[in-house]
Amino acid sequence: MSLVQLRKKINSVDAQLIKLLGKRFLIAQTIGDLKKKHQYTIADKAREKELTRLHESLEKKYSLSPKFTKSLWNLILKESKNLQRLQVEKMPREPLNRSTKEYHSS
Hints:
Number of strands: 0
Largest sheet: none
Shape: flat
Number of helices: 4
Oligomer: single chain
CATH architecture: Up-down Bundle
Structural class: mainly alpha
CATH class: Mainly Alpha
Strand content: under 5%
């Protein structure tokens, strides 16, 4: 396989990653709506521990660096909390500009 072909594969994987992050963040916003409705706090330490265990398992399965995986998930979790906080506070925010139908279907 040529370098050009491999780079096209990387581009495809990157596009899938971005799409999945968009889907995850849309779900996080919906969770923010539920947290507001039920007056839950944004931070959920039990859930964060659960995610940490899951991510550690996946990093081993796919031979990823623990340092990289932790950094990546910390960024994703931080953004998810920010989106939830915006939903709870109902501050104006930029729309994610995504089709709800597309991101809720799987």
